[in-house]
Write a structure and sequence with these properties.
Length: about 375
């Protein structure tokens, strides 16, 4: 690669080559402590996710809000105050190098610094301080918190992707190219998703401000027992449960994919799976959920979906330890798809019985 000292750098930074990647291979590599600090900076960003029109009500203290309730959900699957999680995990089996769930205390599990103390307490009181009732407002609150958390994570991730740009210091040109390509790919995808979520949240905010929850629809699966796996997330599914493409995820900022909010939790010894979507995303809901209901065991297929598309997962250690080794490997392989390797279109198809969700009835509102 031949490039002039005063030419724009090949990496796309817009900076002159001589001030960017010239002699990059001779520069000192980024200190591991700097990398670890950035990866551990999840709580550095602090703000209240409430609509702007309600900001004047905020308290000064930002709290670690739980996206999955601690007292009504995580406690139900905890062991000695801990659950297993895949979120931000880099824990690997020393022999196989496979990603494995790690223990996390329920005081910090599922938390994010995205609400002030006043709104975290008052806004979510109907789903925190009393048994969950299936109402449009309660289902909205569950989905709203998931959306706020997802947007918080995407905003927080931007700093990590910025750090990737400098990870090529001390490496050969070939490795520099690989690292810069990775940075551009992940950074662009993160920016696209962030803008999608901002658009969605603007609609949710209007619903909250106007006390009008008609634009948000929900499908609820009520469970006979406490779910062994819990989650709270926003996802844009590319495949259905028969391996067919349901939508194309493009890099066009104007082409916003259809998203679903997925929340799995317990309340008063009853389990719930709440799937929520905007009215304008009805097409994906219809194709995705109808495909789910065509499967022989929707509970197991839905569990595979959760492991394939979500990191914010919290697992009963007792259930996990009793799970067949082949079933564990299957779930971890599904989780690794999209992380360590491309996602297969048949990832949601399974004949295994994981016994994580004991579904009793389905309700749509």
């Amino acid at each position: 690669m031949k490039i002039g000292r005063n030419d724009p750098c090949w990496c796309g930074s817009g900076i002159k080559y001589k001030k960017c990647h010239l002699n990059r291979e001779n520069q000192k590599a980024i200190n591991q402590r700097v990398i670890h600090k950035q990866l551990s900076s999840f709580y550095d960003k602090k703000y209240c996710s409430i609509p702007k029109s309600m900001k004047h009500e905020c308290s000064k203290r930002i709290v670690k809000a739980h996206s999955v309730s601690k007292k009504s959900s995580l406690k139900d699957i905890s062991k000695n105050g801990h659950v297993l999680t895949t979120f931000k995990t880099i824990s690997k089996d020393k022999i196989t190098s496979k990603i494995v769930p790690k223990q996390i205390g329920i005081n910090i599990a599922s938390t994010f610094t995205g609400f002030c103390s006043k709104h975290d307490k008052e806004l979510f009181s109907p789903i925190e301080d009393k048994p969950f009732e299936i109402t449009p407002y309660n289902c909205f609150l569950v989905a709203y918190r998931a959306l706020a958390r997802e947007l918080f994570v995407k905003k927080s991730s931007s700093g990590t992707f910025d750090l990737i740009k400098d990870l090529d210091k001390g490496f050969s040109l070939v490795n520099q190219l690989s690292i810069q390509n990775a940075h551009q790919y992940f950074s662009k995808n993160n920016d696209l998703t962030t803008n999608d979520l901002k658009y969605m949240k603007s609609i949710y905010d209007l619903c909250l401000e106007n006390n009008d929850f008609i634009p948000i629809n929900h499908m609820i699966f009520q469970l006979n027992s406490i779910p062994k796996v819990m989650t709270s997330a926003i996802v844009a599914p590319p495949f259905d449960f028969q391996g067919q493409a349901v939508q194309e995820l493009t890099t066009d900022p104007k082409d916003i994919p259809d998203y679903l909010a997925i929340n799995v939790f317990s309340s008063n010894n009853v389990g719930y799976i709440v799937i929520s979507w905007l009215e304008e995303h009805e097409k994906i809901r219809s194709r995705f959920c109808e495909s789910l209901l065509k499967t022989k065991c929707p509970a197991d297929n839905l569990l595979c979906f959760i492991f394939s598309a979500i990191e914010n997962i919290y697992i009963s250690e007792d259930w996990w330890n009793k799970l067949n080794l082949k079933y564990k490997d299957n779930l971890l392989d599904i989780f690794s798809q999209g992380v360590n390797k491309p996602t297969n279109n048949d990832v949601l198809m399974t004949s295994k019985s994981f016994e994580a969700f004991d579904m009793s009835k389905r309700i749509e509102i």
